[in-house]
Amino acid sequence: MKFLADENIPLRAVEKLRDSGIEITSIIEESPGLSDEGVLRLSAERETVLITFDKDFGSLVFKGREKSFGVILLRFPPKSPDFVFDMLKILFKSGIDFERKFTVMRKDKIRVVPLL
């Protein structure tokens, strides 16, 4: 599975994920300043799961009915790039299939909602 990190995901966390074998690109590296709609569209076109701290993507996907390949919404304080990396590694080891899902990760809970 491939992932796309939104601008609010620390680049150092993205680099560490790559080093651990996760296929991930970052908006910071490719298209800084791209609108949320543009990020979601790029994610869908590339068939990558978007990782973000921005809860506006929930509105775009559920209220705006924007097309999405999958979204992981992180809802915990990003204390450091290493902390974000560690939390994402826990999530990836959970065995969840993120494709066509809206996944919300809190520090103590993971919720998965199928996308239509």
Short description:
The chain has one domain: Rossmann fold. Helices cover 38% and strands 22% of the residues.
What key attributes describe this structure?
116 residues, alpha/beta, Rossmann fold, six-stranded mixed beta sheet, 5 helices, 6 strands
Written description of the protein model:
By secondary structure, the chain is of the alpha/beta class. It is 38% helix and 22% strand. It has a single domain, classed as 3-Layer(aba) Sandwich (Rossmann fold), CATH 3.40.50. It is built from five helices and six strands. Strand 5 (101-105) and strand 6 (110-114) form a beta hairpin. The model has no long low-confidence stretch (mean pLDDT 95).
Helix/strand layout:
Blueprint: E1 2-5, H1 11-19, E2 23-26, H2 27-30, H3 36-46, E3 49-52, H4 56-63, E4 71-74, H5 81-92, E5 101-105, E6 110-114
Parallel strand pairs: 1-2, 1-3, 3-4, 4-5
Antiparallel strand pairs: 5-6
Helix pairs in contact: 1-5
CATH second-level architecture: 3-Layer(aba) Sandwich
CATH topology heading: Rossmann fold
What is the first-to-last residue Cα distance?
Answer: 19 Å
Q: How many E-type strands? A: 6
Number of domains: 1
